[in-house]
Task: inverse folding
């Protein structure tokens, strides 16, 4: 085989010496993250000032090749991809701080979601990722070529390859929107959803033509340089995870078509990248360097190729565009008007590329879309904007698993129906089974998008076990608490700032024995209240910055389905101020009061735990009035790993007048947390002023996701 390449090279050199006007074509193969080696090879081609006439690319080769065809230099492409954090391009999660306040009325309630079909049967997703972040990044890269619809009009004529999943045939893109063609070409099966274009579905072009040398020949190339990056098939002892198995599955069909394509190449550059998978984006710089090194080994052949006679220029679209029309494509349930509201762009107003991308990503933060991206059409000297969308399934089933010091394993199931009962509505049917049993139904109908009013109805039943503790912090007794009731309210939400709700409530609670002697008791009440909520945390469980504030004030009148007239106030404040990326100061304040009445017999505040007061176990103490001040240093030394070093002070009282004689507790502690794909894992230890140690464990979504919905 090696002698064969030597012979081919000799023929190429002889041909070049005979004709300096030969057309040079590049065939860029796919290979996932390995495709970044194309950049290193192109850096050598740029240094030698080689004239490239045609480019055909597949998958990542389509992206790198398309950008090079637009007029970007290899160094510019390298800077774009590395500086834009390309390694996180498949991260489609939405940071909690990017959500609108109306979406934050619920805390996280599921570790994983299953889409449901029309018969409410769960199914698997089309792929691991929808590609929404990817295609918007490609739009960013290709914006200068938005006014070009024929790829032959680019500074270098370009084509890219995809596979029609319906017919299995090769699809060669030579026109259209460049970012859509690139995205179609790199739709790796099971990794990225197939690309929908003109009622057709496309997957990775590497399935049929991973090294598109034949296409470059058909474009008119006399000399074809093949940039081959596909890996060899892995041995069975190196198929030890899902990514490697998917990589191997894709490579089966690629290996055969690449071997045929190599025969059409005059020069083949193949970096040694077999140790890397298709999805190793953590080694981008090393991959690019390896491509440059391998191209250097072919320097003698490359130096003989024709040189550029003029400098290439980048395709150019105006920095700001005004659109004569903005249309929506792909929606099924959301109206065009509603999607336009979410995007927020209007006709006959000038927008920059950044403003267009920001508007689309803000709409994505609504969580109504699997993907949403812009397409610019230039016709008759007018720019038109198309917003292409795929709506998320309106029916989802969420699964959660949790446990902590007090609770054994609790399994949670949540049926989520978005815009299903009514437009702009949300229904959550929640079931918890295990050491805590609950049924919650939360229905909200919104009137407005980011600003507006809403109506809520929230019936519930919950049962939990409560423990009594001795002076030595050991459990001495336990009772079951059962509460069933409902709240309903009318509220107002204001974009990212505040939710306010006037509500009514009614409930009946009962305590009955579990272990030990206990007199069963029952209590009922109804009343009115006001809730306020603000949140700007970047993450609910492990925030590094932001503020959270919750306040509830309620009142009940004796005799109006209430045994006793009472007033109740509860508030919680969390503030985190970052100092750099890995260090924050945290202040937390909790306050609860029944004002001047002793109501702890029927509706006390329960205190203690890893998120309440470290120095007591969960719900170890109860009181009619309390306040907790916590000051902590939060560290995020490694990705997904967090540490809190904190000092907290607790005061308990009978009336809302604090004296030195009131119960006063101090403790300091440390918490370690790890954010796993199944949920948060946390352990903690604290020492109180009596030098008694307390240990804590928490896994999953242990908190109440309906904290704001409750009375």
Result:
């Amino acid at each position: 085989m090696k002698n064969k390449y030597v012979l081919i090279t000799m023929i190429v050199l002889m041909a070049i010496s005979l004709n300096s006007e030969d057309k040079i074509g590049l065939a860029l193969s796919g290979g996932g993250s390995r495709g970044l080696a194309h950049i290193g090879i192109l850096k050598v081609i740029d240094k030698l000032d080689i004239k490239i006439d045609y480019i055909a690319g597949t998958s990542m080769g389509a992206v790198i090749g398309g950008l090079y065809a637009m007029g970007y230099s290899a160094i510019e492409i390298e800077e774009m991809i590395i500086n834009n954090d390309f390694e996180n391009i498949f991260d489609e999660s939405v940071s909690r701080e990017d959500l609108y306040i109306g979406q934050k009325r619920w805390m996280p309630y599921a570790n994983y979601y299953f889409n449901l079909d029309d018969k409410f049967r769960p199914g698997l997703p089309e792929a691991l990722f929808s590609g929404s972040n990817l295609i918007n990044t490609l739009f960013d890269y290709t914006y200068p070529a938005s006014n070009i619809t024929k790829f032959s009009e680019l500074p270098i004529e370009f084509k890219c390859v995809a596979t029609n999943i319906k017919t299995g045939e090769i699809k060669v893109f030579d026109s259209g929107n460049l970012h859509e063609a690139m995205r179609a070409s790199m739709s790796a099966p099971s990794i990225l959803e197939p690309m929908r274009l003109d009622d057709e579905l496309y997957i990775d072009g590497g399935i049929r033509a991973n090294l598109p040398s034949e296409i470059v020949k058909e474009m008119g190339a006399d000399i074809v340089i093949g940039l081959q990056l596909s890996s060899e098939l892995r041995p069975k002892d190196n198929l030890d995870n899902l990514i490697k198995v998917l990589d191997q599955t894709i490579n089966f069909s690629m290996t055969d078509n690449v071997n045929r394509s190599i025969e059409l190449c005059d020069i083949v550059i193949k970096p040694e990248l077999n140790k890397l998978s298709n999805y190793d984006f953590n080694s981008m710089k090393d991959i690019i360097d390896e491509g440059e090194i391998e191209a250097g080994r072919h320097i003698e052949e490359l130096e003989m190729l024709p040189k550029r006679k003029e400098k290439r220029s980048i395709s150019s679209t105006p920095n700001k565009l005004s659109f004569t029309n903005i249309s929506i494509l792909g929606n099924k349930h959301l109206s065009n008007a509603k999607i336009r509201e979410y995007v927020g762009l209007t006709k006959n107003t000038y927008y920059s590329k950044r403003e267009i991308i920001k508007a689309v990503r803000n709409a994505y933060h609504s969580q109504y879309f699997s993907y949403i991206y812009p397409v610019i059409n230039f016709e008759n000297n007018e720019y038109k904007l198309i917003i292409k969308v795929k709506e998320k399934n309106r029916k989802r089933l969420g699964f959660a698993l949790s446990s902590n010091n007090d609770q054994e394993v609790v399994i949670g199931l949540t049926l989520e129906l978005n815009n299903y009962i009514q437009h702009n509505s949300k229904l959550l049917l929640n079931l918890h089974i295990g050491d805590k049993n609950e049924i919650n139904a939360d229905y909200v109908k919104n009137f407005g998008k980011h600003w507006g009013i809403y109506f809520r109805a929230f019936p519930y039943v919950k049962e939990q076990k409560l423990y009594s503790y001795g002076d030595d912090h050991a459990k001495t007794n336990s009772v079951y608490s059962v509460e069933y009731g409902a709240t309903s309210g009318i509220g107002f939400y204001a974009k990212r700032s505040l939710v306010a709700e006037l509500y009514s409530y009614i409930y009946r609670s009962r305590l009955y024995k579990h272990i030990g002697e206990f007199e069963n008791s029952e209590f009922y009440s109804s009343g009115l209240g006001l809730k306020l909520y603000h949140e700007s945390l970047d993450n609910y469980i492990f925030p590094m910055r932001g503020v959270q504030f919750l306040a509830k004030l309620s009142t009940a009148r004796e005799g109006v389905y209430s045994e006793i007239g009472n007033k109740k106030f509860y508030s919680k404040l969390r503030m985190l101020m970052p100092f750099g990326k890995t260090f924050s100061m945290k202040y937390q304040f909790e306050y609860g009061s029944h004002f001047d009445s002793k109501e702890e017999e029927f509706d006390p505040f329960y205190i203690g735990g890893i998120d309440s007061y470290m120095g007591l176990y969960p719900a170890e103490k109860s009181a009619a009035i309390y306040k907790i001040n916590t000051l902590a240093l939060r560290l995020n030394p490694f990705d997904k790993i967090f540490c809190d070093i904190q000092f907290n002070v607790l005061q308990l009282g009978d009336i809302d007048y604090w004296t030195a004689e009131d119960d006063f507790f101090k403790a300091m502690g440390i918490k370690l947390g790890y954010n796993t794909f199944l949920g948060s894992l946390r352990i903690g230890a604290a020492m109180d002023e009596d030098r008694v140690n307390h240990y804590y464990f928490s896994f999953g979504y242990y908190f109440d996701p309906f904290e704001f919905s409750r009375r």
Q: What stands out?
A: The longest helix spans residues 242-262. DSSP finds 13 helices and 32 strands in the chain. The chain has a mean pLDDT of 87. Residues 187 and 203 are 5 Å apart (CA to CA).
